[in-house]
Every structure is written in C-alpha cells, then in structure tokens.
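Here comes an entry:

___
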Amino acid sequence: MSEALELAKYYFDLSNQSNFVEIENLFDQSSTFCARDGALYLGVKDIMVMQRVHHGSYSKLEWIVNKVEEVKPGIIRFDFDFEGTTQEGETAKMSGVEFVIVDRGIIRHIDVRSQ
C-alpha cells in the first residue's frame, strides 16, 4: 500500500473520530478543499474552520468507505456513504466520491462530489 493511500485512509479514520488535532497535521497553508456544495477553502486554518462547523452540525456522523483506490500516484478516490444525526435529531444520508490528493506526506487537495 502506498504512503499516499495510507495517509488518505488515515484521514477518513480521523474524520470519523472528529479528531481535529490530528486532521490539522495533515494539511498545510497551500492545501485546498472543494466541498460538495462547490465552496472552496484555502489553507489549513480555513479548512479546519469548515471542518469544525460541519462536524458540529451533527450529534453523530460516520463516513462508510465502500471502495478506495489510488487512481494515479498520489490521487486517491473514495466512494463513500455518509450517515449522520443532526443536532436537531434528523437523519442525514448521502453518497459521494471524494478525491484526496497527497504529495510528500501532506494532503494538497480534497474534492468532494455527490453521487
């Protein structure tokens, strides 16, 4: 298993734990994130603010990885299902594809798309 694939899987594990301290260590100031609604985030600080807001809108959340593959060196594709319970007690579900681009041990870009 490549280092990039291991790091991307680790990111998903940390996301399921809402472990922001460790997630923050995976990005740097030049990292970018494109959310499924098309919103763009630049740099670790901006990405982490978005992550905390997103996770905070749920009392429970989980990403279930259905398939993962390294489609090109450093480019990891996850097919996933998301299930969560909002703070208001409503169930939220969605399926999507997430591309995680890793270079030299840092997540350089994440692109989330709905399916």
About this structure: The helical segments are 3-17, 20-24, 43-56.
